[in-house]
Design brief:
The protein contains 16 helices and 27 strands. It has 606 residues and is of the alpha/beta class. The strands form 7 sheets. Strands 7, 8, 18, 19, 20, 21, 22, 25 and 26 form a 9-stranded mixed β-sheet that branches. Strands 1, 2, 12, 13, 14, 15 and 27 form a 7-stranded mixed β-sheet that branches. Strands 5-6-9 form a 3-stranded mixed β-sheet. The longest helix has 27 residues, at 3-29. It is globular. The termini are far apart.
Length: 606
């Protein structure tokens, strides 16, 4: 089936799929309740109903006397986002409900991407990115949090944050050591072990052949190959919309206002946040906050809103003719992301297992019985955390290696290039010879990048997207580490577990843009990385948590914004540096911790 045919079929079928799933969702759990009118004043206003904001809103509304307003720019999540096996739909341009952001052209990376720029996918709906992401539940390394605290952020060491991971979680798997009380049971967020098949078994066997242990990365972190766990409960995605907001939506003191855009935070002459200015339809409304405004708009949206509100680098705000309320140079700085190398592919005997007709059969089973392959991810997806460099502690990983049974070429180029922003012609030139073949891919990802970028305003118009510049591969360390990551990946793919058991063969065609270099040399792989490496959508750091001694700090350890009172930021933007792995679980932990901090402050303040 040709790439054009596959793409057209998916676009044509999606409205029918949505209609059927809407009926099923309404029958099973009903719709989230929304307010018919908005109060002029609330105790708390949370801006952004995503991975963090949904948690904060749900937790604060547990206090019946507090009136809580959650404002989300997007709408309810489309019905297909609830179905784990329809994960791929969530990233298709023109179909996915995201902000439609693209990075600025990159000087040192994304050579095979359209305009040297990449997509920056951030969920624009209730549940935010947790409603569309890959659903991996990864806490990160305990050392991440200990280092956050060591930087001058008391209360964020691993021993202090572990209770919030446990509080959020309802682990539905079997823990190998029940006495090891690091997993949560009974929390809002369902966490379910992923499917395993021959490729997963080869992955773990290959790890053993390279002397790596099998670990539960969510128990104690460390180095090793880890069985996957996903935010899924009973065959349904456990987004923060499903896990937190839906159960809380019937509370009379919680108003959930979706499809409304916050234009700026209202700050009085005493430099106190007193509410928000928002746009709902054609109306512009002022809504007051008697206690606090909490900004949870993500690593792109939070710094943008702060700057539109007059909080940020003074010179930048003045350039856009925005009145400076608080000159906070760190807003929008320290932007970084895990960067991974796409395209490393192995073929195996047989024909591609990807079939649209198999998906239709699975959909029928899911709709009728709520069972079948769509109740979990639609592939074998698994990770390892390994150390390939000499820096840092010996038990601290520097590469996260991701294996997917759905290869780069699985859809014969129909959608994969568009999902990532790759140049379609260059992709086809390189991969066409293995279109339709059974294959899998592995992606080494740098978990501690040193490159830093920025999020800045394009204009003072809230409707304008910001300039998003991850500044990928601007630091030579990142390229050198990814070369080592590729070498490790090739070594794993060359173990007997893959070459003998699966008869896997690495696709070693020379990337045309690097043809002048010796294939397999360090310089060749550097070139490959600068053309094929890209985001993993783990955006962080733009409202950095830090003590006053750090000039680029934006919030303190209680997540209070510098220079303005009664204003906090709660999301992945506060991370001093990104965690060692996927960021959804740490973001939910941050929100749980923040809700406790806020609750404690206002219940002890007279």
């Amino acid at each position: 089936m040709g790439e054009l045919t596959i793409g057209l079929l998916l676009y044509v079928l999606l409205p029918l799929v949505r209609s059927l799933l809407l009926t099923k969702a309404a029958r099973e759990s009903g719709a989230t309740d929304f307010p018919t009118n908005i109060f002029s004043t609330y105790d708390f206003i949370i801006v952004g109903g995503g991975s963090a904001g949904s948690v904060v809103a749900a937790r604060l509304s547990e206090v019946p006397s507090w009136r809580v307003l959650l404002v989300e720019a997007g709408g309810p999540p489309p019905p297909e986002t609830r179905v784990p096996g329809l994960l791929d739909f969530n990233f298709i341009p023109g179909i996915s409900d995201d902000w439609g952001y693209t990075s600025v052209p990159q000087k040192n990376a994304l050579g095979n991407f359209v305009n040297n720029a990449g997509r920056v996918i951030q969920g624009r709906m209730l549940g935010g990115t947790s409603s569309i992401n890959g659903m991996f539940y990864v806490r990160g390394s305990p050392r991440d949090y200990d280092e956050w605290a060591a930087l001058g952020n008391p209360g964020w060491d691993y021993a202090s944050v572990l209770p919030y991971f446990i509080k959020a979680e309802d682990f539905l798997g079997r823990h190998p050591n029940p006495r090891d009380r690091v997993r949560g049971h009974g929390g809002p967020l369902g966490v379910t072990p992923g499917p395993e098949g021959p490729l997963t078994r080869a992955f773990f066997l290959g790890g053993q052949q390279l002397a790596f242990p099998t670990v539960d990365i969510n128990a104690h972190g460390g180095i090793g190959f880890s069985h996957s766990q996903f935010t899924i409960r009973n065959g349904t995605r456990s987004s923060t919309h499903e896990a937190y907001l839906r159960p809380a939506s019937s509370r009379p003191n919680l108003h959930i206002l979706h499809s409304a855009t916050v234009l700026r935070v209202l700050i009085n002459k005493k430099k106190q946040a007193k509410g928000v200015l928002l746009k709902l339809g054609r109306k512009v409304l002022r809504v007051g906050a008697e206690r606090e405004v909490v900004v949870s708009a993500g690593a792109v949206g939070s710094p943008k809103l702060l700057m539109l509100s007059g909080i940020g680098p003074g010179h930048h705000l003045r350039h856009h003719k925005i009145k400076v309320v608080a000159d906070v140079p760190g807003v929008g700085q320290n932007f970084h992301d895990h960067i991974g190398v796409n395209g490393l592919t192995w073929t195996v005997p047989g024909t591609s297992l990807s079939s649209l007709f198999q998906m239709l059969g699975a959909l029928k089973e899911y709709l009728r019985q709520g069972s079948g392959p769509l109740t979990t991810v639609n592939a074998e997806l698994v990770n390892a955390w390994v150390k390939v460099g000499d820096e840092g502690e010996p038990d601290q990983p520097d590469i996260q290696l991701f294996l997917s049974s759905v290869a780069t070429t699985a859809d014969s180029g129909a959608l994969y290039p568009a999902v990532w922003g790759l140049d379609r012609q260059k992709f086809k030139e390189y991969f066409k010879s293995i279109y339709g073949k059974a294959a899998f891919s592995m992606r080494p990802t740098l978990v501690h990048p040193k490159s830093r970028g920025t999020v800045t305003l394009r204009s003072r118009d809230p409707r304008e997207p910001p300039n998003i510049d991850p500044n990928f591969l601007s630091h030579p360390h990142d390229v050198a580490m990814l070369v080592k990551g590729i070498n490790f990946t090739l070594a794993l793919g060359n173990t007997p577990a893959f070459t003998r058991h699966l008869r896997a063969k690495f696709y070693d065609k020379v990337l045309p843009e690097c043809r002048e270099l010796v294939y397999g040399s360090e310089s060749y792989w550097e070139c490959y990385i600068r053309h094929m490496a890209t985001t993993t959508f783990h955006l962080a750091g733009t409202c950095k948590m830090a003590p006053l001694s750090d000039p680029l700090g934006v919030v303190d350890h209680n997540l209070r914004v510098r220079g303005v009172s009664r204003l906090r930021v709660v999301d992945a933007s506060i991370m001093p540096f990104v965690t060692t792995g996927n960021t959804n679980a740490p973001t939910i932990m941050i929100a749980e911790a923040a809700a406790h901090i806020i609750n404690t402050h206002w219940t002890t303040t007279k």
